Amino acid sequence: MKAYKFSQICEKICSKSPILLSGYTCSCYLRNIDDLNSIPENSNVLFVGCGAIPSMPILIADLRKCRVTSMDIDERMIAIASSILNKWYNKLPIDLIYMDGKDADVAKYDIVMCASTIPKTDKCNIKAKCEEAGVRYLIRATENLWED
């Protein structure tokens, strides 16, 4: 839970400045380049746990030309993410949803990814739903929890 709170604080600070936001997004790119390259272009992607700065959804939509639905269980994070997308990334095909990822209809997507802050038990439940629906569940390389 400490990592989640720290992440929230960093995201709130970075969301106030385009320079800090660019740095935050760039660091996300460098940490996740292998994940991004494994996503086929024009996929329909669900990203669970977008937080205040939806850096992975931004990178997926921009670099891989995908349609991204990004959700978070925290209404405040969705509000901040929405203002960031509207201000600096309004041309990207990203939809934000206030919802718990465990309740998502994963069958509507080609790929499902979870933020590193999502509890492991929730990730396991989402992964099981994806397997049942025949949807690819992509584990972020930075987590080393399972294989793809």
Overview in brief:
By secondary structure, the protein is of the alpha/beta class. It is built from 6 helices and 5 strands; from the N terminus they run αααβαβαββαβ. It has a 5-stranded parallel beta sheet with strand order 3-2-1-4-5, with helices on both faces.
Structure explained in plain terms:
- The protein has 148 residues and is an alpha/beta fold.
- The chain has one domain (2-138): Vaccinia Virus protein VP39 (Rossmann fold, 3-Layer(aba) Sandwich).
- 47% of the residues lie in helices and 16% in strands.
- It has 6 helices and 5 strands, in the order H-H-H-E-H-E-H-E-E-H-E.
- Helix 2 crosses helix 4.
- Mean pLDDT is 81; it is low at 144-148.
Tell me about the largest β-sheet. 5 strands, parallel
Unreliable spans: 144-148
SSE ordering: HHHEHEHEEHE
The backbone outline, from C-alpha atoms, is globular
Tell me, rounded to a whole number, the average pLDDT.
81
CATH domain fold name:
Rossmann fold
Secondary structure tally: strands = 5
User: Can you tell me the CATH class?
Assistant: Alpha Beta
Strand-residue proportion: 15-25%
CATH homologous superfamily heading: Vaccinia Virus protein VP39
Strand arrangement, major sheet: 3-2-1-4-5
CATH architecture: 3-Layer(aba) Sandwich
CA radius of gyration:
14 Å
Given the structure, what is the number of helices?
A: 6
Decide which structural class fits the backbone: alpha/beta
Helix content: 40-55%
